[in-house]
What does this fold into?
Amino acid sequence: MGHRNIFQVIQMGLDSESVSSVGCGCESARPLRVGQPPRAMLNPSVLRENPEPIERDNVERTESVAASSRPIPLSFILMAALAVHLPLMLIRLPLNSYDANFHIFFASHYVHHWFNPWNTKWYAGFSQTTYPPLPQQWVALISHITGLDMAYMAVQLAAILLLVVGVYRFSLLWVSPRAASLAALASVFLGSESFLVYSAGQLATTSAAPIYLNALPYMFEWVRHGKWRSFLKASVLFTAAAAAHHATLLFGSFFFAVPILALVMLDRQDGERTPVPAFLLRTVAIAVVVGVAIAVVLLPFWIALIHYPVTQAPIPHPSRANYILSPAWGLNYFVVPYGALILALPFIVLRGSTVVRLRPLLLGFWVAFLIGLGGTTPVGHLLLGRAFEVLTMERFSYWATLLALPIVGLLAAELIERFRMRAIIGLTLAAAFTCAFAVAWVTIRPAGGEDVKVASVAAWLNRDGHDNYRYVTLGFGNKISRLAVLTDAGSVDGEWNSGRRLPELTRNGAGSLTSSKYFGQAGLDALRAILRHADGYGLKWVFVRDPYYDPLLQFAGWRQVDELENQTITVWGKDGVPPAMPVNAPQIPPHWQGILWGTLPFGSSILAILVVLIPAKRRRGDEGESSSDRQENLVRGELVS
Amino acid sequence: MLRPSSTPQAAVENLGDKIRLQAWGNAYASLDNKAQFTESDFEHDLTGYHLSLRTYATLESFEVRPLHASNNEAEVQLRIHWSSVVGPFTDTRNLRVVRNGDRWNVDWPLVKRSVVPPQVIAVNYLRWDVIYRGSGDDWGVQDVEAPHVRIVDMHPVQRAEGVVVLGELLNEDVVPAYVSVRATLQSKNGSPIASEGSFDRISHILLPKQVTPFLINFPDANLSDVGSIRMEPMSSLVSASADPVIEIENQQLNPAPGASVTGQLVNQSGQVVNIAHVLETLYDKTGQVVWVADQYTDRALLPQTPVPFDIHIPEDLARKVSSERTIASTYSVGGFQ
It folds into this structure.
């Protein structure tokens, strides 16, 4: 279904080839010296206000000169993405990431309980309506054919491919098709994307962002030209993006959508004029419609959030550290995600600030960039307030890199134009290094620590009625999600901190119990509190992979009852614990919410696919305006080199 | 970030930061008296020479308090708050800080490693083994009669943090027992208010005829709301031994202000006890339990080597206390006592 859309985009790129050649060729015929103030820089509006008709002679004359200025076909870029990421997916590398098993665990629940979001396997019961479900539901659906692990890989790979298209289309708003295609190619090797996919395992973020990027050009067309089809497409894509990850939409509105609106304002005098009242009306219209659509599609999520806001004590996260004072985290959250993009930062700032049309993009990038630096600057704290203590910052770096890509594409285009093969080799090496480093990072610094084998633990829990009681693990890292997928037993621990409601966990400001010791006194207090109430939760079993916890268990009245995995895992039990009873929590969503949760978010994605397939109606005059726009972009792009 | 050690306080704060970062080399290098011991001695003074509570403790925070100072010398108190798996503990050191030109350096008061002289210790103790039917026979799922245990004393106390239920439990049987106590507060109309267990304020293994105190906390509960308390002592048969024997020496009840019970634990066995848990039962003149206090030792108990303990008694209860009884339960790596 998506092929046709991709084909349209490719077609759009092909349509613009001749135009690109004109602009680029004209300017390349006038060599510039470094430091020479370019005409467009001195007065960028000159070209816009006096668009000179493109003469047929010029087209013919320059096409041959500027053979290298054609955009790279999108099909080629998609194949490059497949070549790079498909093998990594086939060897299931993302399974080593921090959160991959978390998403698979959520998906495994949807496999068995599509319409019942109450999951009893963690926290003695929690609602999955606390987390937007779209990518996980797709994993669940595909898993009926491929199994959960490969379904995860399929969805993740689809997100990567969609990102290529999204970056290309988003970049086309800002730069020439050639630069946009290079930006799309750069997205294949983007360090932050590989970091999130292979180290962090943020399926929701990496799924929502491409959908969002694909929605933005439609929003531009709606606000700029008032195209109803674009309005419809933008609305359903925005809604689907929110169904994948609400935070992407929330913050994306500021980082991505506001610059697009600013771009409309900047362009409003070109070609077909956009009156300010029309601009305001269209902006409000799409904001209201999308807001209502998201409110309906994610209704159970909002109900859960309003009734049970996240008021628990903040949990420390290294992405909020000061990267200068903690260089190890700086490496993890800055150097790895940005990679060779760090070298492009001066150009991004310089070009973004000197070219008026790129300034909104630069502003969005700059704010996301500063917030992504965590506690290195006070910006994140000042702008986000308490949310700074709840969110993790690596996603902001991800968004920052996405926002930077159009300008990076511009840089790449100019470098190739100027230095030809030397630039191509250099850029290829830089991209390969960035991608390889980010992919290898999960091996250099494993997200979940040592490899913990949980199959034997699951087998132990699943036999002899052991799963009549709840359990907790100590020293298992992020493998508790994998264990939860494999076992029928419930736990009082989990990895979705915002979904937990047990007071022992929420009031202490620590993450998972299994990693209690890494949260200092807060973590150990939480562990002691939950063990203290073991009887009430039917918590009978503790699986220990770290003897650090042994003294507490022994003094608190637990006794070792078995050993697993060559005595590397000990099983502790407590006598007199009653079997686990279902928790009658007020957070259990009513049946109608389960129905909504099982239909609307997933339905929004189906609708988005169908609606995007509606062919675009070509307006008279489109060709001319877009041609001049792209020419202008290209001219600006080339002059400041 | 580290500051220049231009004042005694800054020198101690810098040392505290280095200890927090476990930058032992840097911390050792900054000491004035480093020639008197090695870096390894310094590190083990803080983390324990043998595996103990200190070994895995992490520095949570520290306080620096100047005691007095002259032009060239000062005394500064460093209170290090460690977090450990069984709870926080505090290490207080009074440090002499000396001036070297523009800088101040800490004179570290090293607690030297205890060296046990070569000797033979005769071990003669009772041991009870339990034979299970097989590996599938989970501990606790037994078809034998549970050891007879009895609560010999119990009463609730209202404290600022809530209701506390205190008491003592006796193993009346001739076999060892794993024990725990659960209490349920019931309102005047008989409905349950809250239910809590003794957790670690009890010695869970009781040898025949042995008595353990217990303390059960009910945070935020109010005694005036309580009509009755249902006590549920639980016992099951377990393997146990009397080894290691921990002797309590020089036990002393110190009156208020700063009321406490002090003494020394002496490990009479030939093996290292990594962590000891001291449970102190405090009685009034009538012999009723007034309070149960406890402390974990932060240093390992080497054979025949006294390790001091100092257990704080709440000031408002100190006047009521007329006698006390101390027991210690132990944890040794590789053994389950």
